[in-house]
Each structure stands twice: as C-alpha cells, then as structure tokens.
Amino acid sequence: MLNVFYQDEVIEAGCDEAGRGCLAGPVFAGAVILPRDFYHPLLNDSKQVTEEDRYELRSFIEATAICYAVAMVDQEEIDRINILNASFKAMHLAVEKLTQQPALLLIDGNRFKPYKQVRHECIIKGDSLYASIAAASILAKTYRDDYMIQLHQQYPYYKWNTNKGYGTAEHRKAIAEFGMCDHHRKSFQCLPPQLSLELK
Most buried residue, 18, 32, 167, 181, by most Cβ within 10 Å? Predict the structure, then answer.
C-alpha cells in the first residue's frame, strides 16, 4: 500500500513526468496535493496500471485531490535545453499552476532543479511509494497519451495512437520510411546510425 504522506507538518505535492524517453512529442508533468484520507485500491506507478484503470484513476484523482495541475514542454524546447532540463521545467510549470502552493515537493527520481525556495525530496521509485507521486504520474501519463492520440490524426503512419511516441520497432520503421516530422525530437537518436559502406 502506498504512503499517503511523506511528513505531516507542511503541505506537500507529489510531482512526476511522462514521456521522457520518447522520440516524439512533448514531455508532460503532473503535480498533485492530496487530502489526508486519500485512498484508491488501484493507485500505483502509472507503468504498473492498465490503460483503462489509469483513466478511472484520473477521474478519481481530479475529483478528490485538494488541487492538481498538468503542464508540458514541447519537443522544440526539449531539443534546445535537453530532456532532463525540460522534465524539470515541466514539473516547475505544473507546480506553478497549483491553486495552493506546497512547502515540500516530492519528486520521482534522483535529481531535480530546485523550484523557487520550496524544499524538495527526490525519491527513487517514488511513484510506487507515495500516493501523491503516483497520482501525478497517472495525470502526466494520461494527458500525454491523449495529446499523442490527437497528433495521430495528423500523422497516422507513425502509429502514435499505440506507441505514444516511444521508440518501438514500428515507430522507427515509419521514421525510416517517411522521415521525421515537426513533432520528432531532433536531438534524439531516432534512427540507428547508418552502417558504413564497405569500400570496394
């Protein structure tokens, strides 16, 4: 069972991102402040939850959280500032949008760029330990999936409705066939390096 809180002295928000390892599309981040009595039996790290359950959880989180926010940083900015900084920026933007400002941020992972003067704790596998981080991961993942499914209408050959921009075999094959589009991250290795030709 997930811990609802890390501590009980100040307001804390859980933060997580989705789409960091994708070849296309933005990185999304969620920030969530939960009430003391929050509980849902399905809540876990979004990668451990089925797609159907993620959307059920999203509705529940949005209905019961004290406040929540989702933000994104697009592929052009990812290419400009790199994916790690873009992930931090997306989290900062999500926290900024919260209607209540927390005094502590719980960050999934081992690194973070401090947000203003707010204290933070980096927690490895935090989305499988703390409910607020898991909730943030569910929101980030479902909002990003929705975004990629919308983009799929414009670019059906990349199959973003199923791979969501991750570097699956079918996605890489489509890039090899159709080339990259505006939504691909140019700084990522979208295709394997070309094999050097044998000199005759």
Answer: 32
